Amino acid sequence: MTTLFVATTGGHLAQLKNLSERIPCDGPALWVTSRNEQSTSLLAGRDVEYVRPVGCRSIRGVLRCAPIAHRLWRERGITRAVSTGSGIALGFLPYLAARGVECHYIESAARVNGPSLTGRVLRWVPGVRVYTQYPHLAGGRWGYGGSQFDIYRPVRIDRPFGDLVRVVVTVGASVYPFRRLIESLVPLLAPDGELHRATGLPVEVLWQTGPAPVDDLPIQTKPFLPITHLAEALAEADLVVSHAGTGSALLSFGAGKAPLVVTRERRFGEAVDDHQRQLATELHRRGLVHHREIGAITVDDLLAARSTAVRTCQEPQPFQLS
Question: Which InterPro entries match (predicted)?
């Protein structure tokens, strides 16, 4: 059996990579995604077919995938396909299902209150089995095989500071700018800012800012980072502030950190919809993040986030594909 793992970059790919380790292996695996710093570092050493990105709700992008799906099916003998979305799943799973391939679509863990547009379409495609990561959404056509977040547990810690405060601010790999978050944090994290005055220590910040125009702000920025570099920075950080994206949350959890998260909003052009608020609410309920609104973040919030760590189960339950 040759399994095809297919996902859009960002949180979808991060989820699929983690879930793939909980899906029993049965033969070789081939990955399909688009090329960027995240995917090349996350999938280093794996068999990967890089394709052009499928734009948000792009019918042309979806149709462009079908010939690739056909070629891989013939050349690689694909017998099973698994995807966490988003639009790229529409370009591969329906075609492969029509060819008799065993197809599974796992809805993103960001979709706490209901499926995405991709999920709502694929649930009606014959031969595609669909899964939610939340038991309360299972039923009808939707199965439940487990959750991305079940393997994490919050724990309280008491760590003394060293000779400085290391902070990571990350907005993930999204193509949408999130300047509001960066701008709101500058007074808190500046060299003479509120965090420095509260702790009496120098503050060192890694600003991963994505595509947001921030040249006018008094900070040194890195728009994007290889995932290995970002993971190393997160592991060394005292504090993490992040957008409420699934990929960034998973990377923080993997580094043992419970980030302070802020949600993107569609009305400001920061996301295609407001699903980040659903995710932030769920992760806050689990105690894995601290959720705050832009403009309401305080030094006390930052220090509270620092007092929580995240531990990972060493032998997680397999994700059950029906």
Answer: Glyco_trans_28_C
Range of the domain at 73: 2-148
Last residue of a domain, one of 148, 181, 199: 148
Q: Of the residues 148, 173, 204, which one is the last residue of a structural domain?
A: 148
Are the C-beta atoms of residues 252 and 240 closer than 8 Å to each other?
Answer: yes
Summarised one tens digit per residue, pLDDT across range 144-199 is 999 989 899 999 998 888 999 999 999 998 889 999 999 999 999 999 999 999 99
pTM of the model: 0.81
Within the chain, where are the H helices?
Answer: 11-20, 37-42, 59-76, 87-98, 117-122, 179-189, 194-199, 227-236, 246-254, 275-285, 299-306
For residues 12 and 115, membership in a common domain is answered with yes
Cβ 128 vs Cβ 103: under 8 Å: yes
Looking only at the bridges linking them, the beta strands covering 308-312 and 152-156 are antiparallel
